[in-house]
C-alpha cells in the first residue's frame, strides 16, 4: 500500500472512528507499509565455527526486526521463532567445529593456513549437495542483497550468481592478506602484518622480509590448492556458465569488517571496507545468581579465563591443566573459568568453573581485573569494550596477531603456550599485569576510544546493508580491482621509463662515437708542442 493511499484512507475514516480506533488503524497501516517496503535479504553463513555465527547473528536479527525478510543459511538455526527470519538449516551436513588443544598446539603459520582452508574446502561439497540446499537453489525467488562470509573458501559465491543480486562481504576477523585484492584495499606489508603472524605494526627487517614471503606464499597457495577445486565444485552445482569465483568476488559491493582502528592499528582502507568491530556487543544483562554472588564476593578482584567457543579448556594436556590449577591457587583473586566438564579434579577454593559463562556481562562487572583469553577477536573486542586488561595465550588463526595488537596497545601481555617453568610463569605474568596500574589505565582509555563512534556498529552495519539494497550496489568499487599486478605497481610505466632512458643514453653514445675527433685532437697536440 502506497503512502498516498494510506493518507487517503486515514482521512476518509477519521470522521467515523474514535481517536483510539484511528490510532490502532494507523499503526496497522504503518506496519503493513514497513513490511511492503522491506528488502529480501539472503545471508550465507556456512562456517561451522560457532563464534563466526555469533558475530553475524545480531546483524541478521536486527535486519529482520526492522521489517526486512531475512533468509539465513547456517548450521545454527534459531531455537525460537523470530519474525521475518527464515532458517535454511545446514545442521548435519558437516560437523560443527570443536577443537582440542592437541589439534592446534603444534601449528605454525603455514600449517595453520592450510588447516583452516582445508576445513573450508571440505565443507563445500557436503553443503552444496545437501537436499535442503539443492531445493533452495532450485526455488524461484528474488533477493535484493546477499550477505556472504569472507573467509577460507569462495565456493558459496555461486549463490550470488544464482540469484543475481548485489552482495556484501562479512568478516569476523581482520582481512586476510589475500582477501584485500578483491576490494582493491591497500595492504602494505611494511606495516600491515599477515593475520597468521604474531607481528606488530613496527616490524624489524627480518619480520618484514618474512611477512612479504608469507603473503606471497599464501596468495599462491590459496589460488592453486583451494580456489581451483572450489571453482570446480561451484560450477558443478550452479552451472557451467557461472563466471570464475574470482570475478564474482571482485564485484563485492562492500565488506563489513570486525575491526576497529583503536585496537587493530590504523591502516588505509578504501571506502568499500567498513569497520564494525564490536557489532555483536549488546547491552549488559543481569548475571546468573551463582556467578553474580561469586563476583560480588571477590574482595581482591576476579580473573576470567576462557579459551573461546571452539577450543575446549577441558582438552588441555594434564600437565598444563595442573599448572593452571597450581598457579590459580597461589593467587588471592578469584578465578571464573569457562571449563566444559561439570567437575575439575584438585579445583582450588578460589576457582569457579562453568561450561558456559555470559562473557560480555561478566567482563562488565567492576570486580573483574583481568581476562585470560586465547585472543579470539570477539572476546578481545569485549575486553576492550569493557576496559579489562588481557593476558593472551594465542593458539591458532588470527589469535597471535590479535594478541600482539593488544600488547602494542598497552592493554595486556602475550603468554606463549610453551613457556617454562609453566606454573610460576603463569603467576608472574598475572601479577605483572595486576600489580601495574598502567595496563588498567590503558584499557580504560582504549575502551573510551573504542566506544566513541558516530553510530553504534550494529546501526552502521544495518545502514550499509540497506544502502546496498536501496541502490542496487554500493558503487564504492575501487578501480584498482581491475588492474593487473604490473599496472597496480606501475611496473609497466617503470619499464617504459627505464627503456626510454636506456634508448636515449644509447642514442647519445652512438652520436658522440661517430664524431671524428681524432683530427681535432692531433691539431691541438701539434699546437701545444710548437709552443713548447
Layout of SSEs?
Layout lengths: L2 H12 L4 H19 L2 E6 L4 H16 L3 E6 L10 E5 L11 H4 L4 H20 L2 H8 L6 E5 L8 H6 L3 E5 L33 H34 L6 H5 L4 E4 L3 H4 L8 E3 L13 H8 L5 E5 L11 H12 L4 E5 L12 E4 L4 H5 L4 E6 L3 H10 L3 E3 L6 H10 L3 E3 L7 H13 L2 H15 L5 H15 L13 H4 L2 H23 L4 H14 L1
Parallel strand pairs: 1-2, 1-4, 2-3, 4-5, 5-6, 6-7, 8-9, 8-11, 9-10, 11-12, 12-13
Helix pairs in contact: 1-2, 5-8, 12-16, 14-17
Task: Walk me through this protein's architecture.
It is an enzyme of class 2 (transferase). It is found in: Endomembrane system; Endoplasmic reticulum; Membrane. This is UDP-glucuronosyltransferase. Belongs to the UDP-glycosyltransferase family. The chain is an alpha/beta fold. It has helices at residues 3-14, 19-37, 50-65, 101-104, 109-128, 131-138, 158-163, 205-238, 245-249, 261-264, 289-296, 318-329, 359-363, 377-386, 399-408, 422-434, 437-451, 457-471, 485-488, 491-513, 518-531, and strands at 40-45, 69-74, 85-89, 145-149, 167-171, 254-257, 273-275, 302-306, 334-338, 351-354, 368-373, 390-392, 412-414. The strands form two sheets. It has a seven-stranded parallel beta sheet, with helices on both faces. Strand 6, helix 10 and strand 7 form a beta-alpha-beta unit. The protein is globular. The N and C termini lie far apart (113 Å).
Give the total of beta strands.
13
Which CATH class of the largest domain? Alpha Beta
Average predicted local confidence, pLDDT: 88
Low-pLDDT residue intervals, each spanning 5 or more residues: 1-17, 25-36
CATH topology of the largest domain: Rossmann fold
CATH superfamily of the largest domain: Glycogen Phosphorylase B
Approximately how much helix is present in the residues?
A: 40-55%
Order of strands, widest sheet: 3-2-1-4-5-6-7
Question: How many separate domains make up the residues?
Answer: 3
CATH-defined architecture of the largest domain = 3-Layer(aba) Sandwich
Q: Structural class of the secondary elements?
A: alpha/beta
Strand content: 5-15%
Terminal CA distance: 113 Å
Shape: globular
